[in-house]
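INTERNAL AUDIT FORM
Audit reference: QA-55
Scope: verify that the stored structure record matches its stored sequence.
Auditor: D.O.
Record contents follow.
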Amino acid sequence: MTTSLPAEIETHRQPEHEINPQFLERWSPRSFSDQEVAEDVLLSLFEAARWAPSGSNNQPWRFIVARTPEQLAKFHSFIMPLNRIWCEKAPVLTLVISNTKTPKGTNNPSHAFDTGAAWGYLALEANNQGLITHAMGGFERDQAREALNIPADYELHAVIAIGYRGPAEALPEALQEREVPSGRREVNEFIYAGQFE
């Protein structure tokens, strides 16, 4: 099902097996334009996340969204400086967290696994909507927990920048060189037959 890809993608990504091109076209640019994201478009990303698979249908994922200048400033306060260089232009930031407990109050061993699936669905729908996303692990978790009033039974995973793509030239020179789709390991490097080898 892989069809012709944009030159930028085809230069850096070649699948070994036939897949839907959306999986190749989604990547994580850092250059954002200042174009606002309409609410209905933004909500479509979370609608996609809503339908991610979930162990026992617990749906442990939660997204704290920042869109106003005040909300964004609060997020900027706990994002590490090297990420703030580029993510401050993004019109939307969201913190991905997950409930470590089930509705019955027991430990949920699949909370992070399920929440990763929800983030993946969100990222693919963002690409379908003409948006870009970039997930960041570089933020101060304790500061974020305090600033956003997050209870102790929620784990903090990533801050995601969401918006429309800007020109690579808008980034600092060192980041311009990295503004290309990344490659991936070959399939045979991460699957094992019958047991771990």
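Auditor finding: record pair retrieved intact. The chain has eight helices and four strands.
Action required: none
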